[in-house]
Structure formats: structure tokens, C-alpha cells
């Protein structure tokens, strides 16, 4: 497609840029006048969204870019010279500047690149048309593949042939669903869906860290339930989750308004197997611990008394119980959709009670048993465990004195 340009004044068409970002860009453009905004920042400016990260491309080689910026007094971090990227740091904010590239070799995971001065060639290596646009310092839009029209139409489309782009990097399969959820409207692109369905096997080539990083954003993003349903239909979820998934439960979890927390959403999706899932996705220890806790049932239901909830709070962290309440509410919705409003009110009240109840603390420690004449050793641990169980059975209300009075009956 021939180069398409549209004149857009930077100030008039850049409501998503913060004043500090505009000032930083003016500083960069003063020394790199041929540089352009590229990728997501251009897409989001056109969509009227706020901009988080500002990515820039330039035809100059990375060593020249670094030297030019440093000569202008701008701090530079050589974040990825092998890939042509340096990061300018202005007022503590990062601005990635990458030399125009072309792929010389790809293997489905990584690409070998060389520098180019051809903007269209650089745009051609990007994933989707809506991410392949650029804007210069005058606010002129360069759109080689119809990205602006696709953005307006809600059409998420690969640049060039979908099958080829997926072969180059299989992570684009997952990225398609994330962008379809955020920017897509109506039916997904037929060419994209066809290519994805045929090459889900390529996902196994990816590092699990990349897969989980992309999944996190997808599971908490817009239209997450619709995209998960589509992924299941195309065989994508089966390629990622060997232990199976609960697509309907995930959709119910989203429908009841559960927080956009990645591990909670993951817990609502997988069909048990927390340890296997954590291992397959290489979750962090914190993420794995939370996933296991969320999927360990404790019998949390709205009908529980305050005393029973207090006992649960004594053994479980509040965020875990709140997460379990959302999972239980999703299950309730599936079991009885007709009582959705009643169930929502009951679970909302349950969460309010959990938040307001004080967390009970077991008032006895090993030193207290020693003072009461219990000799140290394995028996002390057994007595402490039995005593704690008795304390919980009595609503976590007995005092230390009352607990120690039970010690003679626990030997």
C-alpha cells in the first residue's frame, strides 16, 4: 500500500500526552528531528486514550543516537543496543528510542535484525496495522497499512499475511486476543482467526514467562470473557493449559464484577491443578502461593456467622477470603442464574463483613505453655495445635486465661 499521510497538529491531536511528555518530546526532537512517535503511542493518541509509554523510532544508528542525546545533556541508558534501542531518561521518565529495523531471520521466538532507513520496511515488521503507524514532530501521521481506518472500524488485523506474522513470533497469537478485546468491535478478522487456529502448536515454542506476561494483561483486559471464549474455540487455551480450563466459570467471574487481578482471574479459569499451572507458567512464589490459597476451599458462604468468619480470618489472609468470595459468587451464578441479584447482594454483604471484622489472634504461644508447666518437645507442639483448634471451635473468642485452663485436658 502506498504511503498515506494525514496532517494532524501535535497539540490538537495529542490530548493523551501529559505536559511533561510533550516537553520531553520537544527536547528529543530538537536533537533528533527525524525521529517519530511509533506504535502504541500513535494508536492511543488517535483513539483519544491517555498514553503510558512513549516509544520513538529514528533512522539513525543506536550509537549515533546515544552520542547525540548525551551531547545534548540527556541521560541515556543503553537498554538494548543489540536490538537498536536506547532509553532517554528525562525528568525520571523513560523514552525508548529504537533505530529502524528489518528482520533478516526469525524462528518463531526471536528475530535477527539489521538497521534500515526505510520507515515502511520498519512498519512492515510490526504485528497489527493499528500498531504500525508513526507520527513526526509536526504531527503528520504516516500510515502504510490502513491502521487508522482499522482503528476507527474496530478491526484488529495483522500487517500483511497473518500466518506469516504468527510464524515470525507465536506470541502474536495471544497479543491478537488482547488487542481484539481492547480495540476490536464485532466479528474478529477472518484471516487472523484462520491462521491462529491452524498454528496453536507454535505456542509451545514460547518461553512460559512471555506467555504468562501476555496472559496477565489479557485476562484483566476489556472483553476478557469474550476473548477467552474465542481462545477456547480456536484451541489456544488447550495449547496453554494442559490441565484444562473452566471457560464458563471464568465468564461468570467477570460477569459478577470480580476485581481485575491476574491471579484471581487465573484461578477462575483453570480447572484445578494449581501446582501444575504454577509450574507450567513459572509463576513467582507469591503468585503461586496466592493461586493455591484461592483454590483451596474453606467453605466460605454468605450464610456463615460472624464467629465462623472470624475463625476463617484467623487461618486465612483477608485478600484470599475476598478472592474466594468472588470465585464462590461466580459458581453460584452458574448454579442458579435466576437468583443473580439476590446472590450478588448476599456476597456483597459477606465481603463487607469480612472487611469490618477484626482479625482474631490466637492468644497462646509456646512460651505461655512453658510457663504453665508444659515441657518443651513434640508434645508441646501437639498441645498447642489442639488448643488452637479448641479456640477456633469456640469462635476464636476465649482469652489466654481460658485457653490455658484447657491445657490439663489436652495431654
TrEMBL record:
GO terms for biological process: tRNA processing. InterPro entries: Bact_CCA-adding_enz_type3_sf, NT_sf, PolA_pol_head_dom, PolyA_RNA-bd. Keywords: Magnesium, Metal-binding, Nucleotide-binding, Nucleotidyltransferase, RNA-binding, Transferase, tRNA processing. It comes from the Bacteria. Residues 35-157 form the Poly A polymerase head domain. Its cofactor is Mg(2+). One of its GO terms (molecular function) is nucleotide binding. Pfam families: PolyA_pol, PolyA_pol_RNAbd. This is Poly(A) polymerase.
